[in-house]
Amino acid sequence: MTFISLLIITLITYILTHFFLISKEKVTQYKKIHEHFILPYVNDVLLFIESETQDVVGDKAMVEVNSDKIIKQIQKKASYGNLKLVHALYRYKNTFSYFVGKGEAKSLPTYEVFYIYLQYAKDHLQKNKHTDKLLLERIGKKQKLYGIAFVLTTILGKDEALKILSHKRLWAQSFLDKLSTELLEDLMDNYNHAKMDEHKLLTFLSIVKGDLFEIKESHYFIEIKGYIDEAIMTVKDRWVTSA
User: Fold this and answer.
1) Residue 192: band (very low, low, confident or very high) from pLDDT cuts 50, 70, 90
2) Where exactly are the structural domains of the chain?
3) So where does this one cross the membrane (predicted)?
4) Tens digit of pLDDT for each residue in 203-240?
5) In this model, does residue 21 exceed pLDDT 60?
6) DSSP label at 61?
7) Distance (Å, whole) CA 101 – CA 92
8) Among 134, 137, 211, which residue's Cα sits nearest to residue 178?
């Protein structure tokens, strides 16, 4: 065997060994994230928005989910997450310190943390070819609910926002599909930088108004429509004032 042949074999062996080591490390890291950061918390995060938006008529009482406790647990293992989640956790912590974790000042960063956590969980599961399509679909829908709750709360306040989202029987089936995570994320990011775009807010509200009301004979329709109209007027007034 010539020196060049030996060198080539050695190089190929090194490359293959390096490749398998990296692959093994990725598998190990995936398992750690899955076992220590996704499985322990994802169900509680999904349940929290379900409990916040229980149908005031038809839903049975759910077990109360403690959002503070979940976020504190996620904070302890934030190294498994990404930079965006770390920033959201930082905003949550600051809000909790300055406002003693009360009212809408607490609700917005809570919704944001859970929205970003679910995006991270969804990306992680899809990247690693997770086959539970029902779980992925549920994560996607609940993530959007957190985004919608966040945006509506910034305009109307928490109580009105949750009333809108609690009347699930008034939703069109296409409602969540028409609201993209890109739009919701853009509105949330701009809110954090005090530059929410009125054009995009009105786009968001037009989708809500157009697709939220499927059963118009419901006596709740007028009340919920009133909240949406109020939100639209609030955004338009803000637009005129800032012009």
Assistant:
1) confident
2) 40-242
3) 6-23
4) 999 998 888 776 666 678 888 888 999 999 999 887 66
5) no
6) P
7) 9
8) 211
Q: How many CB atoms lie within 10 A of CB 70?
A: 20
Under 8 Å between Cβ of 127 and 191: no
3 state DSSP class of 41: coil
Q: Alpha helix (H) ranges present in 100-180?
A: 103-127, 133-156, 158-166, 175-178
Tell me how far CA of residue 77 lies from CA of 89, 109, 124, in angstroms.
11, 18, 16
Q: Which sign, positive or negative, has the C-alpha torsion 96, 102, 104, 105?
A: negative
Distance (Å, rounded) from C-alpha 179 to C-alpha 192?
20
Cα 104 to Cα 99: distance, rounded to the nearest angstrom: 10
| Phi, psi for residue 27 in degrees, rounded to 5 | -65, -40
pLDDT tens digit string along 80-135? Answer: 989 999 999 999 988 765 554 445 678 999 999 999 999 999 998 888 777 788 99
> What tokens does 28 get?
């190990």
Distance of CA 25 to the CA centre of its chain: 28
Query: Residue 16 and residue 104: Cα distance in Å, rounded?
Result: 54
CB 55 within 8 A of CB 166: yes
Buried b (16+ CB within 10 A) or exposed e, 19-54: eeeeeeeeeeeeeebbeebbeebbebbbbbbeebbb
Look up residue 52 and give its amino acid.
E
Distance from C-alpha of 22 to C-alpha of 190, rounded to nearest angstrom: 38
